[in-house]
Every structure is written in C-alpha cells, then in structure tokens.
C-alpha cells in the first residue's frame, strides 16, 4: 500500500492569471510522483457563496488549468458555502 501522496491544490482557471509561471514546476512534481509510484491527488475549490465571481461550480473558471498534467482520477472537491 502506498503511504505517500502529492497533493495539488486549487490550480484552477480562476486561481491566478499567472499560473503559467509555476505550471512547469507543478508538472515536474507530478511527473516525479508518477515515476516514483506516489499517488497524485488534485483538489478543486468550489465557491457557493452568494455573489461570488470565482470558482463557481460547472464553470470554466472552476476547472483545473489545461496545462497541468493529470495522471490520476483522484480529483476531489472542497466547497465554501
């Protein structure tokens, strides 16, 4: 049983317009984890607060950034109400 994981949190379209500055390092970490048989877990943020303009469920902004390597189906949601 694996007892280690790389957790990638909130790397979504709404998180930052400057994610391209860090995505290369994130993808290197994902590759490293996958190569070393370490779980990769992705956490997405959903914001259900009234009047929110970011992280709305089922919007493009709430999706994981397209440049990020996705190597597992371990994608989980955390929700702010």
Shape designation? globular
Low-pLDDT residue spans: none
Helix content percent band: 10-25%
Structural class: alpha/beta
What is the CA–CA distance across the termini? 35 Å
Arithmetic mean of pLDDT: 91
Major sheet details: 3 strands, parallel
Rounded to an integer in angstroms, the radius of gyration calculated over CA atoms is: 13 Å
The share of residues in extended strands comes to 15-25%
Tell me the number of strands. 3
Q: How are the strands ordered across the major sheet?
A: 1-2-3
Q: What is the count of DSSP helices, taking H or I runs of 4+ residues?
A: 1
Element-level helix/strand string: EHEE
Brief overview:
The chain has 81 residues and is an alpha/beta fold.
List its traits.
single chain, 81 residues, alpha/beta, 3-stranded parallel sheet, globular
Structure description:
Strand 1 (5-9), helix 1 and strand 2 (39-47) form a beta-alpha-beta unit. The N and C termini lie far apart (35 Å). The chain is built from 1 helix and 3 strands; from the N terminus they run E-H-E-E. It has a domain at 14-51 and 63-80. The chain has 81 residues and is α/β, with parallel strands linked by helices. The chain has one helix at 23-35, and strands at 5-9, 39-47, 75-80.
């Amino acid at each position: 049983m694996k007892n280690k994981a790389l957790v990638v949190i909130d790397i979504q379209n709404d998180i930052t317009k400057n994610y391209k500055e860090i995505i290369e390092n994130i993808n290197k970490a994902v590759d490293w984890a996958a190569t070393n048989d370490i779980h990769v877990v992705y956490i997405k943020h959903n914001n259900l607060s009234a009047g929110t303009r970011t992280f709305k469920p089922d919007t493009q902004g709430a999706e994981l950034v397209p440049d990020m390597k996705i190597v597992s189906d371990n994608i989980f949601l955390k929700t702010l109400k």
